[in-house]
Amino acid sequence: MLQARVPFGGLQRSCKCLTTLAYRPFSSTPLRRQETAADSTSLDDDLSLAPPPVRDKGAIQLRSYTPRTPGLRHLRRPINDHLWKGRPVKELTFPKKGHGKGGRNYTGRVTVRHRGGGHKRRIRVVDFERNEPGPHTVERIEHDPGRTAHIALLKSKLTKKLSYILAPEGMREGDVVQSYRPGIPDDLWEAMGGSIDPGVLAAKTARRGNCLPLHMVPVGSMIFNIGLHKGKGGQLCRGAGTYGILMTKAGEAPPPWEQVKAKEEDAKADGKETKAEESTSEEAKDAKLDAEVEAEIKSDADAAGEKTVMSELEWKRLKKMSEHVAVRLQSGEVRLIHKECCATIGVASNVNKKYAQLGKAGRKRWLNIRPTVRGVAMNAKDHPHGGGRGKSKGGVHPKSPWGLPAKSGYKTRIKANINRDVITPRVRNQGKRRRGYN
Questions:
Q1: Average pLDDT of the segment spanning 282-301
Q2: What mean pLDDT comes out for the span 142-162?
Q3: At CB < 8 A and 24+ separation, what contacts does 77-85 make?
Q4: pTM, 2 dp
Q5: Which domains does the chain show, CATH number per domain?
Q6: For residue 79, is pLDDT > 60?
Q7: What are the phi and psi torsion angles at 273 (to 5°)?
Q8: 328, β-bridge pairs
């Protein structure tokens, strides 16, 4: 049914605003000034009229490009204008060549898939141990094609020797860093008055870029380049933006096991002597009652956790806790690390690396990464999911190219190889985090 038409022509004389009613695309209601918190006359000062907090996206600094070519349209790179534009120190590098670049081992077989090609590069020799004492000056911050974090070129003030280290976030040219693994220097001993002052020691040593033993790091500090074995270099938290947090320090060391064992034998001998005396005395019945009361008290103390005699297992546990510190990693794993291992104060540099976009497939090839082919796109001889007509994996459960179950939390680690230093294991995926259940 047709809509009835409104006779606008006859109403133009009485109301001029109706002439533009048919084509006015916006509202004619006048805008009013919104009342702010300062103009409010409310007596309740506890009410906050501020808008809800908005996530600050300004911290993520990425550089985009004018899409003159298709490869530049989606290219996003972190802004690192402070990096050195020249070449590295040649004495601290060596060329990467050989068939190891293609994921092959010494027999020539592929041990790591999806590797090959890539730009010619030189491996930077990075000092992960930091055993040289004395202050070092940061000459410049450089890009390392062999890792995601940046590296810093140091020059020793004592020996004028050059070396590369992993750069923490915020380190710039001209900073002075120092390693305290060889020990506390003499000038710091004089500043503390000849004895260890924990406050002064933490204020002087726990600075960004300094390398410390874990027993010198303050609790709650953010650390990276963490060692796993005393006397060796850092192995954990070396990628861009990674760090760990020191949770607890080492406790007091228990006495040597020989002393504990000797005390236990002396206590047993004293108990035997008292029992012999009680059996020969006239008040044997009263002594028997006292022994029963003491046994009840001892059992109650053991139940409450106050054992009078330390077992060998408890002594080993206390000794291990006195030699290790607890470090929490970004994965949620809490593990014990020896207190003599090294760590660097700060967070690994290039924290915005995870937000970068390559923009085209060719940049992956420049990075020595070859394409990954799906199993359903292969032949049956090449993958358990291969073969068949169309996109079908033949009704089999998801498997790796070698036939092992690939999902559903299938465990491949032998129980005898469980890491005893892990206190709290990391959260396993098992397909849950990817679906958004956690």
A1: 61
A2: 96
A3: 77/356, 78/350, 78/352, 78/353, 78/355, 78/356, 79/352, 80/143, 80/150, 80/350, 82/141, 82/172, 82/173, 83/141, 83/142, 83/143, 83/150, 84/140, 84/141, 84/142, 84/143, 84/153
A4: 0.74
A5: 90-220 (2.40.50.140)
A6: yes
A7: -65, -40
A8: 245, 334
